[in-house]
Design brief:
5 helices, mainly alpha
Length: 93
Protein backbone atom coordinates (compact mmCIF):
# COMPACT_ATOMS: atom_id res chain seq x y z
CA UNK A 1 0.00 0.00 0.00
CA UNK A 2 1.45 3.33 -1.01
CA UNK A 3 1.63 6.26 1.35
CA UNK A 4 -0.88 8.14 -0.84
CA UNK A 5 -3.46 5.38 -0.39
CA UNK A 6 -2.85 5.23 3.35
CA UNK A 7 -3.21 9.00 3.68
CA UNK A 8 -6.42 8.92 1.62
CA UNK A 9 -7.90 6.15 3.79
CA UNK A 10 -7.03 7.96 7.03
CA UNK A 11 -8.39 11.24 5.65
CA UNK A 12 -11.63 9.59 4.52
CA UNK A 13 -12.18 7.99 7.93
CA UNK A 14 -11.43 11.31 9.65
CA UNK A 15 -14.14 12.97 7.55
CA UNK A 16 -16.64 10.11 7.74
CA UNK A 17 -16.72 9.85 11.54
CA UNK A 18 -18.03 13.40 12.21
CA UNK A 19 -20.39 13.13 9.21
CA UNK A 20 -21.97 10.04 10.78
CA UNK A 21 -21.92 11.59 14.28
CA UNK A 22 -23.89 14.65 13.16
CA UNK A 23 -26.46 12.43 11.44
CA UNK A 24 -26.73 10.15 14.45
CA UNK A 25 -27.15 13.09 16.82
CA UNK A 26 -29.90 14.53 14.62
CA UNK A 27 -31.68 11.17 14.63
CA UNK A 28 -31.37 10.94 18.41
CA UNK A 29 -32.70 14.50 18.76
CA UNK A 30 -35.79 13.63 16.73
CA UNK A 31 -36.43 10.52 18.83
CA UNK A 32 -35.83 12.29 22.16
CA UNK A 33 -32.93 9.99 23.00
CA UNK A 34 -29.61 10.62 24.75
CA UNK A 35 -27.54 12.99 22.59
CA UNK A 36 -23.90 13.30 21.64
CA UNK A 37 -22.41 16.18 23.69
CA UNK A 38 -21.68 19.37 21.75
CA UNK A 39 -18.05 19.27 22.89
CA UNK A 40 -17.70 15.83 21.31
CA UNK A 41 -19.26 17.01 18.05
CA UNK A 42 -16.88 19.98 17.97
CA UNK A 43 -13.87 17.75 18.70
CA UNK A 44 -14.90 15.46 15.85
CA UNK A 45 -15.41 18.52 13.62
CA UNK A 46 -11.85 19.59 14.39
CA UNK A 47 -10.59 16.22 13.16
CA UNK A 48 -12.90 16.04 10.13
CA UNK A 49 -14.26 19.51 9.37
CA UNK A 50 -15.48 18.79 5.84
CA UNK A 51 -17.49 15.77 6.93
CA UNK A 52 -18.92 17.73 9.84
CA UNK A 53 -19.88 20.66 7.62
CA UNK A 54 -21.55 18.42 5.05
CA UNK A 55 -23.36 16.55 7.83
CA UNK A 56 -24.53 19.79 9.43
CA UNK A 57 -26.14 21.05 6.25
CA UNK A 58 -27.33 17.72 4.87
CA UNK A 59 -29.25 16.94 8.05
CA UNK A 60 -29.94 20.59 9.04
CA UNK A 61 -28.31 19.96 12.39
CA UNK A 62 -26.65 22.64 14.54
CA UNK A 63 -26.81 25.08 11.60
CA UNK A 64 -28.43 27.83 13.68
CA UNK A 65 -25.95 27.65 16.55
CA UNK A 66 -23.09 30.17 16.16
CA UNK A 67 -20.83 27.82 18.07
CA UNK A 68 -21.13 25.46 15.09
CA UNK A 69 -21.83 27.56 12.00
CA UNK A 70 -18.81 29.73 12.76
CA UNK A 71 -16.42 27.21 14.31
CA UNK A 72 -16.77 24.31 11.87
CA UNK A 73 -15.96 26.40 8.74
CA UNK A 74 -13.03 27.90 10.65
CA UNK A 75 -11.78 24.37 11.36
CA UNK A 76 -12.03 23.66 7.63
CA UNK A 77 -10.03 26.77 6.77
CA UNK A 78 -7.47 25.87 9.44
CA UNK A 79 -7.18 22.36 7.96
CA UNK A 80 -6.62 23.82 4.49
CA UNK A 81 -3.92 26.18 5.73
CA UNK A 82 -2.23 23.35 7.66
CA UNK A 83 -2.21 21.09 4.60
CA UNK A 84 -0.77 23.83 2.39
CA UNK A 85 1.95 24.62 4.94
CA UNK A 86 2.83 20.96 5.45
CA UNK A 87 3.02 20.28 1.72
CA UNK A 88 5.14 23.39 1.15
CA UNK A 89 7.49 22.47 3.97
CA UNK A 90 7.79 18.71 3.51
CA UNK A 91 6.58 18.21 -0.04
CA UNK A 92 4.27 15.39 -1.02
CA UNK A 93 5.09 11.95 0.38
Amino acid sequence: MTSYVLIAIIWAIAELVPFIAFGLDKLKAKKGMWRIPEATLLALAFVGPLGALIGMYLWHHKTKKPRFFITVPLFLILRGVAVVLLVRHFGLP
